[in-house]
Amino acid sequence: MTGLIDIHTHYVPDGWPDLTGWAGPDAPWLRDDKVIMTGAREFRALTAHCWDAALRLADMDADGVDVQVVSPTPAFFHYGRSGAEAAEIARIFNDLALEITAPAPDRLLPFCQVPLQDPDAACRELERSVAAGHRGVEIGNHVGDDDLDSEGVVTFLQHCAALGVPVFVHPWDMPSSPRAERWMARWLTGMPAETHLSLISLILGGAFDRIDERLRICFAHGGGSFAFWLGRLENAWHRRPDVIGTSEQPPSHYLSRFSVDSVVFDERALRLLVDTLGADHVMTGSDYPYPLGERPVGSVLAKAGFLTPDQRAAISHGNARRFLTGT
Ligand code: CO
User: Is the pTM of the predicted complex or chain greater than 0.90?
Assistant: First the structure.
């Protein structure tokens, strides 16, 4: 198959056990009209594409997508709860993800979630999920005030590297304020900023110096604001060493350590990613089935006339195959 591999899609199960009794009143629940609720607040209206494999496969066929990586929706991570609670929620959702993807195990590849606030429990759930059929893990880009360079997260990432499990990093839990609540600004500016900060934390926090180079890790939404502001970061590393962190090398040294997806909508942005990170570090993604995603999947790639045939093949499926399998 030489169609697209879409490494950024989401699922939501069509119902789950009531968590509000023990996981707190703001635990997400599904209203009868298929709106995710947090407490009394409407979080997101869903369509059956979130859980119906047949609908997903029909859309994939229409868009020329061979394979979807099917990841959790970050609202269900629960990193703010106890590790035991989050582990139980992860177990429930990871098992439901396997049911959703079961009709097409070669085309719908589930990525699990883990209780990242508890590294030991996260490693256990990762192992359990992979043994049960998950093909990778999606993590949120921070755990409360801890970034990806925190000791616990680095321990988990080391485990992923040792097991050869690919990691997809998704922004979530964006800071809120009256200004950020306007126009979905938490999604439009908050998410790219969160992803930018995560990459900076891995670099300047010295995490890439400590983590095994075999780690396969990809960041959502083109890596957020990172590529556009790499020059500013590089300049700061050279000119403000007193405040800029502990990485052994300048930030540009670490560009080969991670990949990003192509959910940037504009071929000029895709060109910046290819120029900055290399065509071997960009993979097709869509954010399917959500409204801020790309449809048809691969639109920005189709518009990118500057790509060579080899680069196009790498971004459409070749890099993703290596990300998923390690070979
Ligand atoms: Co997404």
Answer: yes
